TrEMBL record:
It comes from the Bacteria. Keywords: Membrane, Transmembrane, Transmembrane helix. It is a multi-pass membrane protein. This is Zinc transporter ZupT.
């Protein structure tokens, strides 16, 4: 949860702001990303089977993972188009921040009803969006500003999942000695992503 919040606010959103000179457009894309996920969640909740043990938060996590990985592919392809050195730097940065993020996502899937093995393979399957995003860039050659708006959209969608789905579910399970777990988890995850973001810019 904290990793997702940090990924949204300390990685994707700063990347978008640094690649676009119109703050209002970036923030609008950010808000649209969160609003879009609200409509996705509405569809998930309406059409889910009553007998299913998988919570909507797990499906929302998968949706946000796919969007995020698509943006990673766009960023990666754009970096390689700029220069080979920039491409390899982006590849390293994406690999570094995806490891803790995928661990967090798999944990969310398991805690919301998925079998651990299936959660692992679903997390890996979402990674197919990375080459998909890269192929889209290679085919369409979008501008840096378009890529920045896409990153802001993804940041909004990820923040929505973390705060609207995962955090409420965590509070429901927090009791006794675990009552501080959600707050501690957020703090630890945000600090981790802050350190990774600082390392990427170093």
């Amino acid at each position: 949860m904290g990793l997702l919040i940090g990924d949204s606010l300390l990685h994707l959103l700063p990347h978008a702001l640094g690649s676009h000179d119109d703050l209002s457009k970036i923030m609008l894309a950010f808000v649209i990303g969160a609003t879009f996920l609200a409509f996705v969640e509405n569809a998930v909740r309406v059409h889910r089977f009553d007998a299913s043990v998988v919570a909507p938060a797990a499906r929302m996590t998968l949706a946000s993972d796919f969007i995020h990985h698509s943006v990673d592919g766009i960023i990666l392809a754009g970096a390689f188009l700029a220069s080979r050195a920039a491409g390899y730097a982006a590849l390293a940065a994406i690999a570094i921040h995806e490891i803790p993020r995928e661990i967090a996502s798999a944990g969310v899937l398991v805690s919301n009803g998925y079998d651990p093995r299936r959660a692992f393979f679903l997390s890996l399957a979402m990674a197919i969006a990375v080459p998909t995003g890269a192929i889209v860039v290679a085919a369409t050659l979008p501008s840096a500003k378009v890529a920045a708006l896409t990153a802001a959209f993804a940041a909004g969608s990820i923040l929505y999942v973390a705060l609207a789905d995962i955090l409420p579910a965590a509070w429901l399970k927090a009791s006794g000695s675990a009552r501080l777990a959600p707050a501690i988890g957020i703090a630890a995850g945000v600090v981790s992503m802050w350190l990774l973001a600082r390392g990427e810019r170093a």
